[in-house]
Design goal:
13% of the residues lie in helices and 26% in strands. Strands 4, 5, 6, 9, 10, 11 and 12 form a 7-stranded mixed beta sheet that branches. Strands 1-2-3 form a 3-stranded mixed beta sheet. The protein has a two-stranded antiparallel ribbon with strand order 7-8.
C-alpha cells in the first residue's frame, strides 16, 4: 500500500446528501440507492438516524429505513414536498415504481400526507432526478427544464384500509385525457421489501400534465436545452 492509497474505497458522491436521505413532513426517509457505487452511503445514514441521540425522538418517523428496501429504491432528489399534504415524486432512472408505492403506504398510514403524485419521467441520465429538471419557486409556480416535455402522472391516495387507490376521473368531471394502466409497483404484502410482484393487479389513472413553465415569460431562459448536471 502506497502513501496515497485508500484503506477504504472513497465515496465521492456522498456530498449529494439529499439523495441518501430526505425529510418528508414529520419524518425521514433513509433511502436505498439504485446505483451500486452509492449504496454504501446509506449505511452511514442508517448509523446516524438510528443511533445518534438527537434523532431518537419518538416523534420522528421513518418512512424508509435504508437498505432494507432492497430494489424498491427511492432517491431524495426525486422527492418534492409541495405542501397541503401532497408529495411529488419522480419515477426516474433512480426511483422505481415499487419504491414509490412502498413510501406512499407508510406516508398514508402515519403522516399528514394525503396524496402522492408520481411523475413517469424519462429513464436517462439527463433527467437523473426530479429536482434537476423541476423546481418549485412559489405556491403553484414551478420552473421546468424544457427538455422534460409533457409527462404522465399517477395520483395515489389511501383507501383507508392500508391500501392505495386512485379516484375515478369520471367522478371529478375530468374524464377526458385520462388513461388507465396497471400500477407496476406491486408487492406481496402491504409493506414488503423484496420488490417481487403480487399475483393480483391494480389499475390506476394516468393523466397528461400540462407544462407549467412557459419560456415566453422568462426571456432569459429561452433556448435552455440542458439541465444542471449532477452525479
Amino acid at each position: 500500500m502506497g502513501p496515497t492509497s485508500f484503506i477504504v474505497a472513497p465515496l465521492p458522491n456522498h456530498l449529494f446528501t439529499r439523495d441518501t436521505s430526505c425529510w418528508v413532513y414529520d419524518g425521514v426517509a433513509i433511502n436505498s440507492m439504485r446505483k451500486e457505487a452509492r449504496r454504501r452511503e446509506t449505511i452511514n445514514y442508517e448509523a446516524i438516524y438510528n443511533y445518534l441521540p438527537r434523532f431518537q425522538d419518538p416523534s420522528i418517523k421513518k418512512w424508509c429505513n435504508g437498505n432494507e428496501a432492497g430494489p424498491a429504491t427511492v432517491e431524495g432528489g426525486d422527492v418534492l414536498v409541495i405542501g397541503n399534504g401532497a408529495v411529488l415524486v419522480g419515477m426516474s432512472e433512480r426511483t422505481t415504481p415499487a419504491g414509490v408505492e412502498r413510501m406512499a403506504r407508510r406516508l398514508f398510514g402515519n403522516s399528514e400526507v394525503k396524496q402522492v403524485i408520481a411523475l413517469d419521467m424519462a429513464k436517462e441520465r439527463a433527467q437523473m432526478h426530479l429536482d434537476t429538471v423541476m423546481t418549485q419557486a412559489d405556491y403553484g409556480v414551478f420552473t421546468k427544464y424544457a427538455g422534460m416535455g409533457m409527462v404522465e402522472s399517477m395520483t395515489l391516495t389511501s383507501d383507508g384500509e392500508g391500501g392505495i387507490k386512485v379516484a375515478d376521473p369520471r367522478s371529478s368531471g375530468h374524464a377526458q385525457g385520462h388513461r388507465t394502466r396497471t400500477w407496476p409497483g406491486r408487492y406481496q404484502g402491504p409493506d414488503s421489501s423484496d420488490g417481487r410482484p403480487r399475483g393480483r393487479t391494480r389499475t390506476v389513472e394516468r393523466r397528461f400534465q400540462r407544462p407549467r413553465w412557459r419560456p415566453r415569460r422568462c426571456p432569459r431562459l429561452r433556448g435552455a436545452t440542458s439541465p444542471p448536471t449532477t452525479s
